[in-house]
Write a structure and sequence with these properties.
- By secondary structure, the protein is α+β, with helices and mostly antiparallel strands.
- 41% of the residues lie in helices and 14% in strands.
- It has a 5-stranded antiparallel beta sheet with strand order 1-2-3-5-4, sandwiched between helices. Strands 6-8-9 form a 3-stranded antiparallel beta sheet, with no helix packed on it. A two-stranded antiparallel sheet has the order 7-10.
């Protein structure tokens, strides 16, 4: 969910152009011919990008919508600078692709990071400190020219109207918008941001965290990278860990999280849960299941 559809209708947005293996091959042959002999096959498509495996070591990431083109550029610019300071692997671009006659946007060749998305294979509870250490390392002051993201770099209350639309629909179709969720959401909206902005991943849900044998092995999909409230990323605690004790350990290991930041983090978890569930129920069951788990965990901890 790197960027959000401008359409008022829910559901995962359609691709604005067809991206297939023939297109990927032609782009590689033209711009990176030394890689064009490697086998190519599709892996996945998210809200904004299509992913193709390229041989054993690489993958190709291409925007599938105009709104995502700038996000790829952000990854290409900032991940090489951030990666050396992070304790988990991130997909630093190996090669950069340019617009071509048959494709209008920039694209990337990235290292293939091992692991399965955490919504399919959950991390063990003992990974809570590992996540906290990663977030601590990431949440440092960003420079003045850090990317501005209108969906993540703003205070939570500025997203309230959009989320309320989702919550209203979900009250009619699910039993997940409990009085507890409503209370936590209202409290988060009233809680001011009392911390300085830091670097954010911005979209740290379970599909963007890789896991192998229970261990977190990488953090992917950095298109929403921005500067803002650390609570935005701390929402991942409820998206990744099923055990309440693991969530508590993650909070303790991050250290010095104020009660206000914790309240906003739960609010951001509701934001992600509501947005992903609302769209997922339309055309993405995997996304809906991940979102439902998040809302149940927030309600349990509230």
């Amino acid at each position: 969910m790197e960027s959000e559809s401008k359409s008022s209708s829910p559901g995962m947005p359609e691709a604005e152009l067809e991206i297939d293996t023939d297109l990927v091959y032609s782009l590689l042959e033209e711009q990176h011919p030394d890689l064009s002999h490697l086998p190519i096959y599709p892996v996945d498509a998210g809200w904004d990008n299509a992913m193709f495996r390229l041989g054993d070591r690489w993958c190709v990431r291409l925007p599938r919508r105009q709104i995502a083109a700038a996000l790829i550029a952000n990854e290409q610019t900032w991940l090489p600078q951030l990666a050396p300071h992070l304790p988990l692997p991130v997909p630093v671009p190996y090669r950069i692709g340019s617009p071509a006659a048959n494709y209008p946007w920039r694209w990337s060749v990235l290292p293939w990071l091992t692991g399965v998305a955490a919504d399919q294979t959950a991390p063990h509870a003992d990974q809570a400190p590992r996540l906290a250490a990663f977030l601590r390392s990431l949440h440092t002051p960003a420079p003045a020219n850090a990317p501005i993201n209108p969906f993540r770099s703003v205070p939570l209350h500025q997203r309230a109207a959009r989320v309320e639309e989702c919550l209203q629909r979900l009250r009619q179709t699910t039993n997940l918008i409990t009085p507890q969720i409503q209370h936590i959401w209202a409290l988060a909206l009233e809680t001011p941001m009392e911390v300085q902005p830091t670097w954010l991943h911005g979209d740290l849900h379970a599909r963007n965290v890789l896991v192998q044998d229970g261990a977190i092995t990488g953090i992917i999909d950095w298109g929403d990278i921005t500067s803002g409230d650390m609570a935005t990323d701390l929402a991942a605690i409820w998206m990744l860990f099923a055990e309440k004790t693991a969530r508590q350990e993650a909070i303790a290991a991050y250290a010095d999280i104020s009660e206000a930041t914790l309240q906003r983090a739960q609010g951001w978890a509701i934001f992600f849960g509501a947005m992903l569930l609302d769209t997922g129920l339309v055309n993405n069951p995997r996304q809906a299941a991940m979102a439902a788990q998040t809302l149940r965990r927030v309600s349990e901890d509230g």
